[in-house]
Sequence to fold (333 residues):
Amino acid sequence: MGGDEEAPRPAEGDAEKSKGRTGGLYMPPAKMKAMMRDMKDTSSKDYQKLSWEALKKSINGLVNKVNVSNIKTIVLEIFGENIIRGRALFVRSLLKAQMASPSFTHIYAALVSVVNTKMPEIGELLLKRVLNQFRRAYKRNDKVVCNAVTRFIAHLVNQQVAHEIVALQLLTLLLEKPTDDSVEVAVGFLQQCGHTLSEVTPHGLNAIFERLRGVLHEGQIDKRVQYMIEGLYAVRKAKFAEHPGVTPELDLVEADDQITHELSLDDDFELEEASTSSPSIPTSRRTRPSSSRSSARSSATTTTTTTTKVTRTTRRPRATASRASAATGSSRT
Fold:
């Protein structure tokens, strides 16, 4: 008789799932779509939860399968999603994927650079979270996370999503009080974006290498790290031939369309962490590349404010001689 009383409980669980509460269990996409079709009120909270879960799975799937050969197709599919509503989901998915697969960092940075031309607020949010993640890892002396995050920052600089001043600030911080780990992170960072820095800010790069020379002469770091610095000088002598800033197959953005965010390591950022949770507001229309171009261009000409400072978002050509000025050198370092 006890079994007869407990029999209705599974049906109650199914009823809860039909209302959009998955309870953390996997739900096939086909079943989720069928449940969404059965719901008449698209503005209800249950429908919004289901649509949010579907959007999250779709964005995660697209980010996880991107590679050099299919990046152009993935970009079009991403723009077919409700990327404005799911911008925080997209950014979080990129950060998790990059942390899990650092060797694909240049691909993720290229993906961000294309999305950034249409919706610069997404590129800015990603850069804010990456810089915040670096600051937290640096305070914890987490070498593994620092290596992965600085690699992402380096490729964002290569793609001109991040301004080169961030790279110079980061290198100055790492070499201010040099340790074996901080110098190793700085050397790896320079290998990734040294080619770009040599074009856009040669004076700043020279100042960084002079600081490395001083660290080498002080002799207070491990022999292994000293050999890494000497190897970096050899890479520089070869003009970073083995470490190009952007490979031809990932150079997807026209110079006139590129948008660069001038953020600083000292800024206080609004990370929009609350937007990663499921909202209960109606879904906005899906965005497409043609309709978002005008909004991206208007956003590029406006000033985006953070909590304490003003963040400038500018368009500028990639790797041109006009960007390499004397002010970029000693004053930024």
Observations:
- The longest helix spans residues 180-200.
- Residues 1-23, 280-311, 318-333 have pLDDT under 50 and may be disordered.
- The CA atoms of residues 148 and 222 lie 22 Å apart.
- The beta strands are 259-262, 304-305, 310-315.
